[in-house]
Amino acid sequence: MTPTLILRNCTLADGLADIAIEDSTIIAIEPNLDLTAPTEIDCAGKLVSPPFVESHIHLDSALTVGQPRQNQSGTLFEGIEIWRDRKRTLTLDDIKHRATTALKLMASQGTLFVRTHADVSEASLTALQGLLAVRDAVKDWITVQVVAFPQDGIYGGPKNDDLIEEAIKQGADAVGGIPHYELTREDGVRSVHRIFELAEKYNRLIDIHCDEIDDDQSRFLEVVSACALRTGLKEKVTASHTTAFGSYNDAYALKLMGFLKSSEINFIANPLINITLQGRTDTYPKRRGLTRVKELWQAGLNVSLGNDCIQDPWYGLGTGNMLDVAHMAVHVCQMTGLEEIDACYDMATTHGARTLNIQDSYGIALGKPANLIVLDSGDKYDAIRRRATVSHVISRGQLLVETVTPQVTWQQDVG
Ligand code: FE2
User: Fold this and answer.
1) pLDDT digit string (tens) for 292-316?
2) Would you say residue 409 lies in a domain?
3) Residue 231 placed within a domain
4) What pLDDT is attached to residue 412?
5) Calculated CA dihedral for residues 337, 13, 24, 403, nearest 10 degrees
6) How far is the CA of 273 from the centre of ligand 1 (A)?
7) Does the pLDDT value for residue 1 go beyond 90?
8) Which of 23, 33, 92, 250 qualifies as a FRET site for 132, CA 20 to 30 Å off?
9) Which residues does 80 contact at the CB level (< 8 Å), separation at least 6?
10) Whole-model pTM above 0.90?
11) Which domain, by its residues, includes 315?
């Protein structure tokens, strides 16, 4: 063994150890490793974790807040209208520049795996082509999956159905959808069937924006679940948002939960954005507008987390930091028990890897690709509580980013 990089004194899930990396692969994990390497980093007992996984983001609209105007109502639907205007001016360079800037921001905070949606409702497919180009350009330091996402609905325009199929032919990794935004409920159901047909035809993953609305009658999740079960695609299928699940009556929710367990699909919650977008038509009590994260997790279903937006027409804030997302999930989902807080961390890491279907090459284990992060924290709970600085990002065995933790020095003796 001839390590190229060694991380010493790492706090891992099962205790303190050193990690040796040769080129881009983890070759040893043991306490007090009797090896040397040209580069060694003393982690001094800090938490060393697999990188964050951003399960759900829209890189095509990232960093466009205020263009051409602000979202005054704060609703999903005004956001869609603003984006419809903004996307008329999209160019490949515009997409590539903003997406790469956002990816660098995310990677600098420990995210090395990303699933982005690309709006494929425009005849030019500029957003898709820009994001596919970025996916290929950054692949040596960050992994990006692109979902063909029909923002205006598969049946919302005469050419949209052809456009999503063309997007898949051009190289999208997953088929998306938005059944609750189709013109009728029947169109919504039909769109889900079409998504599964395309995924089977082209051997793609599925990630559907599903029931992102407070309407307790928006019930496309049951259609997605049934299709996943009948086609056998199961863990290749993800339902994003599913915020209406937070408004379903408990009798229906109980029945649905049983079906969901059989279907084994993945869920993605986006707590930062949905706590702000949803509940806008409520007076008081005002709903939280999130899916049933804690109950899905307790039922053994795979739930992961996403930022969804960084400064775009739907959410003008956002830093791309997955610890911000996990922190908000702890609060909004009331997952404040220690095991629950740890689970929120896992939703931003290992659960995300399952959603992206990359778990075989993800994680800190012998023979796996050397992707890992060092946090200025001793454990997951503290990392979320303080939204700890990620001091080192190791990508493909190389030190990609180093960040110095802010130091506080009192200048006065205040007792
Ligand atoms: Fe989204």
Assistant:
1) 999 999 999 999 999 999 999 999 9
2) no
3) yes
4) 97
5) 60
6) 9
7) no
8) 23
9) 151, 152, 181, 313
10) yes
11) 52-361
Q: Residue 54 catalytic? A: no
CA distances from 149 to 174, 206, 228 (A): 9, 10, 19
At 324 the pLDDT is: 98
Residues 293, 303 contacting (CB under 8 angstroms): yes
Domain CATH code at residue 11: 2.30.40.10
Query: How many domains are contained in the chain?
Result: 2
Q: Give me the pLDDT at residue 260, please.
A: 98
**For position 238, what pLDDT does the model report?**
98
pLDDT digits over 244-289, tens only?
A: 999 999 999 999 999 999 999 999 999 999 999 999 999 999 999 9
**Active-site position among 78, 122, 182, 212:** 212
Q: List the one residue out of 406, 369, 381 whose CA is nearest residue 19.
A: 369
How many A from CA of 56 to the centre of ligand 1? 6
Answer with the one of 361, 388, 410 that is the final residue of a domain: 361
Determine contact, residues 48/12, Cβ cutoff 8 Å.
Answer: yes
Residue 79: pLDDT band by 50, 70, 90 thresholds? very high
The CATH number given to whatever domain includes residue 66 is: 3.20.20.140
- Co-location of 376 and 257 in the same domain: no
Q: How far, in Å, from the CA of 308 to the mean position of ligand 1?
A: 5
Residue 259 contacts residue 219 (beta carbons within 8 Å):
no
Three-state DSSP class for residue 61: coil
Residue 393, C-beta contacts closer than 8 angstroms, at least 6 positions apart: 51, 107, 108, 110, 112, 373, 399, 400, 401, 402
CA of 57 to the centre of ligand 1 (A): 6
Q: Computed over its alpha carbons, how large is the radius of gyration of the chain?
A: 21
DSSP string, 80-131: HHHHHHHGGG--HHHHHHHHHHHHHHHHTTTEEEEEEEEE--STT-HHHHHH
pLDDT band at 76 (very low <50, low <70, confident <90, very high): confident
Same domain, 13 and 68: no
